[in-house]
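ok trying again, last paste got cut off:
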Amino acid sequence: MRTLNVFKPAFVSVIYFYLGLFAFPYLAQAQSTGTAAPSIIITSPKAGTNIVLGEICHITWTSQNVSTVDVGYSFGPGSLNWMDNNASVNIPNKGYYDWKVNIGNTTNTKIMIYVNGSYSGYVNVVDPASAILQSPAPNSSVTTPMVSFSWTPATGATGYSLKVGSTANGDEYGSSGQTTSTSTSLIIPQNGQKVYVTLSTLVKGVWKVNQYTFKMATPMITITSPRAGSNLVPGQTYHITWTNSKNINVVTLGYSFGPGSLNWMDNNASVNIPNKG
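nice, full thing came through this time. structure:
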């Protein structure tokens, strides 16, 4: 622990504590009245959640010593837009605002909510006429390499396309191609990495795109044999071994020819068996 002596002037000032790579704002107040500085913390919508175009988004916040608020949204640095034809400007502070979502376009699908200088994390603006990812849940952590994707069907849709990669719009982890199905499965490496999902819906000849992210959990099991690049002979018996970093009682073994392929062994006898390593 390090002790810091702070000189407190008779006005509100902001100083920063530095720890590693991060600077943390610290509000130092020395007004003789003891009145707390105005502050607002946005509580909903949460970062990473979906809000739907044309539907009501219930924006909430906690505050102290704030009588009026300005509520808006931003596409990022340098962008700030008021809501409902400026009806959200200089309004009484009720701790909430109900906004019928309208951002003027469907190209920029991520926004931050703004209330009196306080910003939420980015939320996803989704088109009700396009498919919405249901599984895996956006911003969740996935613990198995075999990932099942599913999405809501969209009215009037004639096709869907799912791409999964390590960057926005990437597909190195696999894709569904154009399909009429509302689900698919892909095998994704487990390295604790962020995964980007691009879900597109074809409606009246136009592709409508929603984008999501989730995280692959750090692998709990590491396969030690057979090693990558070794040769396996059909009909021969091979000793598969692994180490695990967490307490895992049951395992399922299989093999894959690549993304979208997964097969169990020995007529499914390798499914849900005791973990012997």
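cool. The chain has a mean pLDDT of 82. The chain has three domains: 39-126, 133-216, 220-277.
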